[in-house]
């Protein structure tokens, strides 16, 4: 099975709610050289709340030259409140031809602010 077939099957599995199958197929496609797979897998993990690996996957996609991974990494960093790191990644996304729109930047910053206000203050 070609890596394109694996990506197609992974997308179908994702749509059907078969997260484990989608993840396995994306990982297999990545192992076979699908540089866009990093972005696809990172997005899947975000959707299911598995944030631990997301930044690393986006960065691997950026290093492989995927402009969408650069854009999504910038937005992810903004949502995490990491403005300085996001600024550099936005420059990379621009250089690769896929910068975030102003609306996407605003939405990501707003998301961070709303999430920050929901977190309990530490008592310490």
Describe this structure in words.
By secondary structure, the protein is mainly alpha-helical. It has a domain at 59-118. The protein is built from seven helices and no strands. The chain has helices at 3-15, 19-31, 37-47, 54-63, 67-79, 83-96, 102-118. Helix 4 (54-63) packs antiparallel against helix 5 (67-79) and helix 5 runs antiparallel to helix 6. The longest helix is centred in the last third of the chain and has 17 residues, at 102-118. The radius of gyration is 16 Å and the shape is globular. The mean pLDDT is 93.
Topology:
Layout lengths: L2 H13 L3 H13 L5 H11 L6 H10 L3 H13 L3 H14 L5 H17 L6
> What overall form do the CA principal axes indicate?
globular
Structural class: mainly alpha
Sketch the major β-sheet. Answer: none
Query: Oligomeric form of this entry?
Result: single chain
Helix content: over 70%
Order of helices and strands: HHHHHHH
What is the mean pLDDT? 93
Rg over CA atoms, rounded to whole Å, is 16 Å
Beta fraction: under 5%
Number of alpha- plus pi-helical segments: 7
Spans of at least 5 consecutive residues with low confidence: none
| Separation of the first and last Cα atoms | 55 Å
